[in-house]
């Protein structure tokens, strides 16, 4: 065997070399240049700090322009949110009307999209810069405030919240189907079989679709069809089945005027309304402190959980202790 060697040239573009004496000279020269540049930079910084302040450069936007730009951005965001909200409301209302008429899904969807595309924001509609997810709603004192719509399903025996929801719409009726789903999920998670016998709800929840959904869930609905004046007592329905040819609303009104319906519905105020009163008084739960739909939703469910924990504590229930040997 044989052994030899050959010279292979390096890439000319990468050949960079310097003698040691040139290194010494270049090091001193560059060190002096760097020192001069740093000194100049410090002199400039000191002069700018004296002229504009320690945290400013002098090329920032004027205060008035910066404030107007940020406000313009906030206004544009709020405007977009209002347009999206009214389009969504128009879509939802069109679907509700289609459901009342029994329209098929394809036609209902087309009507909903058409309504959303032609939705117009009223000139007096408002949007909040503090919490853009909140909506103007009429409160119990008759005023209009930025609010969320807190929902709760409460059991009769112990006033425990079984399901809840926080909505950005003041309308109650659209919340019912989802609350029924959440109720079913809660009962399943708790290992409870069956479902409540009856659902009591005020007039805000009435719709033919909600009556059908509640009945389909195996629950007997008693949903008011309208508000009564103070002291007004509706006439008692005659015994026997309702007359033929009644609309779903008329059937429900007849059901509520029967002796059983009147007795059962009278219990509503003693079941669910005290829960909201207790949350407001004991937990200051009439005002959410977190902003944004996600955080507000978390705070609402935190209030519901605290209410349930207070009910559990006041019930005197204690966990079963394992037997000791």
From TrEMBL:
Transposase IS4-like domain location: 139-309
GO molecular-function terms, A-Z: DNA binding; transposase activity
Region: Disordered, residue numbers: 88-109
Sequence ranges of Basic and acidic residues compositional bias: 88-104
InterPro entries: Transposase_11
Record-level GO BP terms: DNA transposition
Protein name: Transposase DDE domain-containing protein
């Amino acid at each position: 065997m044989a052994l030899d060697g050959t010279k292979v040239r390096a890439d000319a573009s990468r050949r960079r070399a310097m003698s040691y004496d040139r290194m010494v000279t270049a090091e001193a020269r560059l060190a002096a240049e760097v020192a001069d540049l740093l000194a100049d930079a410090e002199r400039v910084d000191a002069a700018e700090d004296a002229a504009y302040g320690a945290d400013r450069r002098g090329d920032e936007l004027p205060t008035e322009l910066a404030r107007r730009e940020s406000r313009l951005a906030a206004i544009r965001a709020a405007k977009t949110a209002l347009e999206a909200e009214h389009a969504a409301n128009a879509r939802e209302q069109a679907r509700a009307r289609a459901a009342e008429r029994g329209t098929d899904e394809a036609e209902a969807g087309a009507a909903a999209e058409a309504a959303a595309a032609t939705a117009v924001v009223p000139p007096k509609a408002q949007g909040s810069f503090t919490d853009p997810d909140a909506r103007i709603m009429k409160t119990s004192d008759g005023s209009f405030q930025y609010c969320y719509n807190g929902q709760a399903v409460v059991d009769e025996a112990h006033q425990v919240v079984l399901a809840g929801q926080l909505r950005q719409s003041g309308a109650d009726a659209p919340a019912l189907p989802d609350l029924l789903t959440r109720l079913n999920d809660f009962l399943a998670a708790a290992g409870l079989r069956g479902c409540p016998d009856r659902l009591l709800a005020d007039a805000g929840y009435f719709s033919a679709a909600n009556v059908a959904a509640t009945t389909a869930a195996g629950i007997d609905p008693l949903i008011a069809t309208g508000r009564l004046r103070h002291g007004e007592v509706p006439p008692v329905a005659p015994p026997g089945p309702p007359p033929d040819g009644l609309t779903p609303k008329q059937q429900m009104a007849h059901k509520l005027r029967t002796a059983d319906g009147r007795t059962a519905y009278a219990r509503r105020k003693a079941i669910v309304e005290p829960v909201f009163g207790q949350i407001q008084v004991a937990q200051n739960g009439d005002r959410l402190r977190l902003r944004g739909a996600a955080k507000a939703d978390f705070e609402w469910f935190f209030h519901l959980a605290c209410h349930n924990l207070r009910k559990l504590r006041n019930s005197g229930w204690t966990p079963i202790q394992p037997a000791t040997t």
